[in-house]
Amino acid sequence: MQFDSNSQRDKQEQGKMTHRKTGADGSRKRLFLRGFSRRSFLGRAGVLTAAGFIAGIMSPLLSSVTKGGIVQAQNIDVQVGPFTVKSSVVKEVLAANREYARTFTKGNLAIPPARKFAILTCMDARLDPAKYAGLSEGDAHVIRNAGGRVSNDAIRSLVISHKLLGTQEWFVIHHTNCGMEFFTDDIISQLLEKDLDTATLNADGTFTPAGTPGTGSTEGYYIKWLTIEKQEESVARDVRRIRTHPLVPGYIPIYGYIYDVKTGRLNEVPRATEIGRPI
Ligand SMILES: [Zn+2]
After folding, report:
1. What is the pLDDT of residues 13-60, one digit of tens each?
2. Ligand 1 centroid to 259 CA: how many Å?
3. What is the whole-number distance in angstroms between the Cα of residue 103 and the centre of ligand 1?
């Protein structure tokens, strides 16, 4: 078990097939580069890895630390239980946790969120709901997934959040420059069919399989990946799904917002909030 990003990159030349998302006008989508720190994710082969790309929107897949603003892979061997991994992440997390626990004073909080609201938002690593919404431990529920989409599992969490734990207001918060805008169900399913390793996202907006051909699975074709075409549309659609869901009472207001990764601001999607008003 290892997370050595460089060895992934070394294998990237073997894939010939490329995958790209094509816009309605036939133009390739290149928006993923917008607002994205290319320097941070440039590998030594001069390509962006999909791990770097996804790491921008999701939890980091690569072991990395920031030094002078540049994310660098760590290649030191670290013993984690029975495994030797080329990553210092576990060590870093446990060190941070020791420091957190050293001054911890929140051991007597109640289970229900004190401020009685919930936020559904994207797992993007650039988003910190506790900071952007001013939350402390025990304040609110934060439900996160890729895109902040209203999946069946998000509904499950929201229903529990209200029915058993008393939240009374809900936010759906998507964000600008979301990675879910930059691929389609077909693209990810085709890549997974070839291999399971992290694909390369080339500078020209195409994906290249980077693993051993024939080691993938066709299971991806059976998953609805809930990609995003347009943020305002996805927020409105997701709010509508919650609003009309038979397990959600009509008196819960649902607010639709888009977080701007450039400014840190939450911008309302008025149409979505209108759809989400109590009925
Ligand atoms: Zn996102």
Report:
1. 333 345 555 544 444 444 343 333 333 333 333 334 444 444 444 433
2. 10
3. 32
Q: List, in order, residues 6 or more apart from 127 with CB less than 8 Å away.
A: 121, 175, 259, 261
**Spacing, Cα 27 to ligand 1 middle (Å):** 22
pLDDT, residue 168, reads: 98
**C-alpha of residue 160 to centroid of ligand 1, in Å:** 24
The DSSP code for 133 is: T
Residue 1 CA to ligand 1 center (angstroms) comes to 27
Beta bridge partners of 196: none
Q: 3-state DSSP call for residue 7?
A: helix
Ligand 1 centroid–CA 57 distance in Å is 5
CATH number of 109-178+226-275: 3.40.1050.10
For residues 168 and 242, give the distance between their C-alpha atoms in angstroms, rounded to a whole number.
Answer: 13
Say what the pLDDT of residue 94 is: 95
Ligand 1 centroid to Cα of residue 228, in Å, is 9
**Residue 226 Cα, ligand 1 centroid: separation in angstroms?**
11
pLDDT at residue number 74: 55
Token pair of 135, please? 């939350």
CA of 124 relative to ligand 1 center, distance in Å: 5
C-alpha distances out from residue 210 to 16, 45, 103, 178, Å? 9, 13, 44, 23
pTM higher than 0.85: no
Handedness of CA 223, 160, 148, 52 (dihedral sign): negative
Domain ranges of the chain: 5-99+197-213, 109-178+226-275
